[in-house]
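Problem 12. The chain below contains 282 residues. Write out its predicted structure in token notation.
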Amino acid sequence: MLDWCTSDGKGVPHVSISDRGFQYGDGLFETVAIRNGEPRLWPYHADRLARGCKRLGITMPSETALSAGVIHALTHSDAPATHAVVKIIVSAGVGQRGYGRTIAAAPTTLFRAFPAAPLALESYKEGIDTVICQTRLASDSPTAGLKTLNRLEQVLARSEFADSDVFEGLTMDAAGNIICGTMSNVFCIRDKIISTPSLDRCGVEGVMRRHIIETLQQRGIATSIQPFAAANLEYVDEVFVANSQFGILPVRSCLQMTWAVGETTRQVMSILAANGVAECHL
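Solution.
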């Protein structure tokens, strides 16, 4: 693996210890699935990164620079271009000591390519096991929906089941609403109606979540976006989680609750498989 780091569009040998991304988590990141040499859902990643940079007041690297960085990282790594992951980190760059940013610094952009780790086919066919995490997400965050470098809530939540066979943990806000998984977004189905939690107050708006919503909408299938109380999980018929790397995984259990891998979930997986998410093809 090779780290390719740039500052103000020029290659630099390392990330400074004074970089605000290192000091304060002052930055954003994207984890891009590379399939058959192409960055999947790239427009969605670029759009979320642009919105994040605008929100944080960071100069957005040009799309040309981002694309070149992805290619450079892939070319100089042992990750196969047919099935890889590229992580992009954009920080506020090297700045003065202290939280405040009074002078706009050149952003630091870091690229790293990894071989992708495909999941077992059984996970797509039979579903995965989940838990509800005790760690709550802070509500009314000004960075709600964005993928900032500050992921301590997810670190704490995932640590709760790190030594178990559980695949994913579902996180809640202070009011007891399901928000998202530690690394995924959540979708629930009742009476064939698909819904996903609102992320207006906290959580991360995943690019696969957006792809699912927009692709289903093009097929005339609406997705309801609204608050979803954790207590209502026991009344749904199907549950699945989604992220940029694995696509969609059916959920077969959460604590004492169990669900069948249902017809609607299979339908959504089939639609996604026909729209660039090969992992969902069964």
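Discussion. The chain has two domains: 3-115, 121-280. Students who got a different answer should revisit the alignment rule from Section 12.3.
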